[in-house]
Structure formats: C-alpha cells, structure tokens
From TrEMBL:
Gene3D superfamilies: Chloramphenicol acetyltransferase-like domain (3.30.559.10)
Tree of life domain: Eukaryota
Keywords for the protein's UniProt record, in alphabetical order: Acyltransferase, Transferase
Organism of origin: Quillaja saponaria
Protein's UniProt name: Omega-hydroxypalmitate O-feruloyl transferase-like
Length: 434
C-alpha cells in the first residue's frame, strides 16, 4: 500500500520559474463568444496534471522551444483555449475567443527527476511547483483555460505541468488535445480536427426534466462528517492488481443475486462501502455515490469523433449508510449497476435540461465522487522524447473525490487515490486488506 505523503521528506524540490509569456495561435482565429454546454457548466473546476519525460540523447535543451511552437500551431485548431472565460448575459460560463493565447512558463528544478520519488501519487505541495498558478486569481474567470509550465531537470529530463479548466473538456477530450499537441511537436499532421460545435448539446426548448436527478440532491449531514474535515486530511493510494479485482467480483457474486459484475462496479461498490464505514456514518445517514459516465456513444445520434467538450454525465446511487453496510456486497454492486444502466440519451438530455431550469450544481454532502482515468491514454503522449515515464494528477480537485487510475506496465491494475481525515483513513486502510 503506497503512501501519498512518502515523498522523501529530507528532500525539498526547488523550482525557479521565469516570467510567464502568452502563446497565441500561429494564425488568425475566429473571435467572439464560444458556447459552452450545460455539461461543461456543471464541472468548471481546475485540473492540474503532470507529464514526466526522461532525458534521451538530445537532452532537454530544445524542449521549451519545441513544446511552445507546437502549442502555437495546435491552438489554431483549438482556438477557444487561447480565449478567456467570462459570464454570458444569461449568467452562464462562456469563452470569449480573444486569441490572447495560453499562458506559458519556463522553469528549472534544482535536482534530478529521480530525486522526486513516486510522481504518480498526488502531492499538491511538491508536485504543485511543477504547475504554474496565476498569482492572486480569486476565481476561475481569472485563470486562463490553459496554463502550461515546462520544468527542466538537471538530469536532462523535463516535466510538462498543465493547469486546465474542466469546462473546456472532459478526460477524453483533454487527452486528445494533449496527444494532438505532441503529434504537432513531432511534425505529424492532425488526422481528425476537433469537433468544436457544442450547440449539439443545447437544452431543449422548452426544457423537459424526465428523471429524478439525485446527483443534485442536497443530503442532510446527520453524521457531522463535515466535522471530520477539521482534522488533517491524509491522501493515500491503494493498488488493486488483477487478482484482487477478480476477488472483489467473486465476493460480489458469491450470494448468487448477480449474474454479472464489471470490474468498475465491484471496485466502486467496495470503496463506497469502506469509505462510508470509515467515516462512521449514522445508519440513517443518506449517502450518495456519484460517478461520471462517458455519453459519447450513448447519445442518439452519437457524439461526433473528436468532440471538443464535456460529453460525460454524472449518474448517482443513493441509500442510507445502514442499508449499505448491513446488506451483502451484491446489494451495493446492484446499486452501482443500476446507476450505469440509467445513462441513456433521454436521461442525459434530461440532466442538461435540469441544469437549464435550476442552475443547480451536483451536491457533494455525504457523497463520494468517483472519477475514472484508467481508460485515458495519458501515458501515450509523445512530444519527441518518447512516452512519459510518469503522468497523473497533482492533487484531487475536491476532498470527496476518489480517482481510479490504471497502473503497471500492462495497465491491468487500478490505483485508487483518495483523501480522508486521519482517523477515518486508519479505519479505511484496515478495510482495504482483503
């Protein structure tokens, strides 16, 4: 079991950053307002990721120039990323395509890449130095949609640190963008340009809410779980190898209630139950599981290839902590399965319309929000220095979020990252020993 705080404590990463510059698109691009759908509005959080590249025979001398030039070229296709977020007349987030450009920072580290230790575990303090934060930004409107930092290390390796707003794209879209940026750096043509028109996900007129949307439900915190957050938060990573994942599926199916069970369903149910127990929720405390489902193929007609935007929708399971812990594992897995099944074209259209009418944000009270990055090929990004030796998030966006990442050479294992108050983490670690 890994420990996200186990970065060598005697060693402190020092990074000196140069003044930020702006990288505008290489050619004149369209100006004016750019529409963001309600699925984008819902999820406007900053996501910070890093990509670590080992030195090869050519070292890192050209890394800044190559990555910066390629960024300027790729922004011609992805021009909204060179704009700025603003609020429309109807009070929604929109992009003002000004062509100002992405923010770019060059930096140098005082050490070798290897000195940092395990970069696959979120560590907002150390790894945060590899991503540039806009000084004094009070809200997301003051942070450009794309901020990039290239940090050169003494060994000849370098790290690309990105700070991107989730309202610009979901994980699949972000991965396509970064991979296209890498291809451009290597002089390869863009095979399929991004599909920029987000109005295909506009709300219906008039809007129609056809489903109960529990993802937005405010839950009363009977268990005072918010009190626990006054304790120090600990972040840990738990690795589930293929054998362990199989075992979880077996446990879920042993009472004969389920005839099938996916790895995601078994793992989500296991983590949800264990976290509920670790937080010592009262039996009558309602608890919610939220997770994102990729709607690309579930929309009718399906979302076009290379859709630049969020095509994920949140689905949820809701029940009392008592039900969750007193019933066998098959009960929880059944709830997760139902939530997956619920996502259809009409459910997603209803979620878009729900936001149109209520402007509600998904509530995170007594909630676990699982976000799955295990299918995203962040590890295949190549700017000309080969694939990254490590890549991943710098921090978890919210304390209720748990991240599933693929792990290992074959990517058959799953790393579960989450944060809990110290006393709850002690219980949770014990429950992970299956």
């Amino acid at each position: 079991m890994g420990d996200a705080n186990s970065v060598n404590l005697k060693f402190e990463l020092g990074v000196s950053q140069e003044e930020p510059t702006l990288v505008p698109p290489a050619k004149e691009t369209e100006k004016g307002p750019y529409f963001l759908s309600n699925l984008d509005q819902n999820i406007a959080v900053i996501v910070r990721t890093i990509y670590c590249f080992k030195s090869d025979s050519k070292g890192n001398e050209d890394a800044v120039k190559v990555i910066k030039d390629a960024l300027s070229k790729i922004l011609v296709q992805y021009y909204p990323l060179a704009g700025r977020l603003t609020i429309s007349s109807e009070g929604k987030l929109t992009v003002d395509c000004t062509g100002e450009g992405a923010v770019f920072v060059e930096a140098e580290a005082n050490c070798m890449l290897d000195d940092i230790g395990d970069m696959t575990k979120p560590d907002p303090i150390a790894l945060g130095k590899l991503v540039y934060d806009i000084p004094g930004a009070k809200n997301i409107l003051e942070i450009p949609p794309l901020v990039a930092q290239v940090t050169k290390f003494k060994c000849g390796g370098f790290v690309l640190g990105l700070c991107m707003n989730h309202c610009m794209f979901d994980g699949i879209g972000a991965m396509e963008f970064v991979n296209a940026w890498g291809d451009t750096a290597r002089g390869l043509p863009l095979k399929v340009p991004p599909f920029l028109d987000r109005s295909i996900l506009k709300a219906r007129i008039p809007p129609k809410i056809e489903f109960p949307h529990h993802e937005f439900a405010q839950i009363e915190d009977l268990s005072d779980t918010s009190k626990l957050h006054e304790e120090e938060m600990l972040y840990r990573s738990f690795c589930f190898d293929p054998e362990k994942l199989e075992q979880l599926k077996k446990i879920a199916m042993e009472d004969g209630v389920l005839d099938r069970c996916s790895t995601f369903e078994a793992l989500s149910a296991f983590v949800w139950r264990a976290r509920t127990q670790a937080l010592r929720m009262q039996p009558d405390q309602q608890t919610k599981l939220l997770f994102a489902v990729d709607g690309r193929s579930k929309f009718d007609p399906p979302i076009p290839e290379r859709y630049f935007g969020n095509a994920i929708v949140l689905t949820s399971s809701l029940c009392s902590a008592g039900e969750l812990l007193e019933n066998p594992p098959s009960f929880t897995v059944g709830l997760v399965h139902k939530a997956v099944k619920m996502v259809t074209d009409s459910y997603m259209r209803s979620a878009i319309d729900y936001f149109e009418i209520t402007r509600a944000r998904p509530s995170l009270a007594a909630t676990l929000l699982i976000t799955t990055w295990s299918r995203l090929s962040f590890h295949s990004t190549n700017f000309g220095w080969g694939e990254p030796i490590a890549s991943g998030p710098v921090a978890l966006p919210e304390k209720e979020v748990s991240l599933f990442l693929s792990h290992g050479k074959e990517r058959k294992s799953t790393n579960v990252l989450l944060g809990l108050p110290a006393s709850a983490m002690k219980i949770f670690e014990g429950l992970m020993q299956i």
